[in-house]
UniProtKB/TrEMBL annotation:
InterPro entries, sorted: GcrA
Coiled coil regions, renumbered to chain: none
Protein name per its UniProtKB record: GcrA cell cycle regulator
Gene3D superfamilies: Homeodomain-like
Amino acid sequence: MKDSVLTMVSGAQPAGWTDERVDLLKKLWMEGLSASQIAGELGEGVTRNAVIGKVHRLKLSARAKPTNTTPRARPAAPRPAAPRRVAGPAPSMSASASINKPRPSMPRPQVMGATALAMTPDMQAELYVAPATSELFIPEDKRLSLLQLNEHTCKWPIGDPLTKDFYFCGQHSLESGPYCEFHSRKAYHQLDKKRR
DNA sequence: CCCTGATTCGC
DNA sequence: GCGAATCAGG
């Protein structure tokens, strides 16, 4: 007997691309949703890899018709306007609430671009000047000299090495790197961009 | 680090 | 055919 009970094992629905699902997949893919978004839309048992894999098998990788009717050279980038930005964006965002959201399928990141922004005097008033203190303050008693570093201390240098007030972060470092969480993130975000 | 799609390859 | 693992890029 064919004992393929792979399905219906633990109430999980391992996909099994039905016409319905494939249809939805096609639709969403064409609409420009990302693979992970589509995966989330199709169900918990579907990963973005599954989606991408299917997409390729269906041979519908290309999903945007830029209307390349003119293989001409790039028309000089149009300079619409340069809304001058003041000093800093003053990002006062951080407190990420602990909202339970396993996989928040985004609403619709579709439309973006031309967004008329008009600031009322009130809004402008609320724009504080950027703190500019993008560095952690380490209490003096926590500061470490070069010789005090060990495997578990953050080795992020702070200050001018030539001056007296030079020290190392010294916070407990992550297993994944030589820095504490704060500095690890800071380092990566810089380097990874330009790497290679 | 987050994310994206592309490709490979054992199942 | 399927999709996790990997790769390559932003």
